[in-house]
Amino acid sequence: MSQPGWYPDPYGTGSLRWWDGQSWTERLNPEPARPPRVRLPRPERPAHEEQAPAATYAAPHVQRASWGSRPAVQPLGVLVHGLHLHADDQIVAYGNTSLAWPHVEWVAYWAARRPAGSGQGPGTQWIFQAGRYPFRSGPRVEVVIEPDALSPAAMAPGPGQGEPEQVWGRLIQLCQEYAEPRLVAELAGRVRAGESIDVAQGLTFHPGGVRGNRVSLSWSAIAGATVDSGRVWIQQASSSSPILYVPQQNPNAVLIPALLARLRG
């Protein structure tokens, strides 16, 4: 692995995160003014210590004012489950499926605990998806990364390509750099033009605010959104408790914090 140092945060905070030579730490530079409510996937634990067989973990995602000004993210190239995974500033490809970033219409990424079964012990799965509509039948690139999924001979040194979580983090970085700013701008533009659009299969964004689960909030009533425990939570300005949520794995759910910031700005 590379030398310890500050590197672009693969978890999407927009800050630099300290790499201690073996793993990512909790240290950020600069520290966010309001720390995002996110958690990193926890290290593997012995089977007898497992409590919840299907607990999920959030992939950090926050609105970044530095979009367009950050250094280019380095390309990714590894073998996952024996298939070549490649992503750069133009394309994401896995096996025999590929999509150019400008053609991506929805994205999703999350991490989940894999329960024991089918000859495998419990562990963590890091999942990344990018695709086109219709959601169920349109083309997509889907990668499920597990602790035993990477081929050691194909892994390049340096942060972002040596461990499953770091490969997943690099995919998220590339997606946030080359797909998400366009997606957020397009969705915000449609709402500002008077459309009502479905985001994340459960929330309706419209010119007056957001509707979902029999709750309607105006823009002034919304404080923002956070990603936590496998869900994206929308927080009410008048309360510290979130009032709406959608599962993080729903298409474009991870865009909600940035989309709200754009529309409320």
From TrEMBL:
<feature type="region of interest" description="Disordered">
    <location>
        <begin position="26"/>
        <end position="61"/>
    </location>
</feature>
<feature type="compositionally biased region" description="Basic and acidic residues">
    <location>
        <begin position="41"/>
        <end position="51"/>
    </location>
</feature>
<dbReference type="InterPro" id="IPR018929">
    <property type="entry name" value="DUF2510"/>
</dbReference>
<dbReference type="Pfam" id="PF10708">
    <property type="entry name" value="DUF2510"/>
</dbReference>
<protein>
    <recommendedName>
        <fullName>DUF2510 domain-containing protein</fullName>
    </recommendedName>
</protein>
<feature type="domain" description="DUF2510">
    <location>
        <begin position="4"/>
        <end position="36"/>
    </location>
</feature>
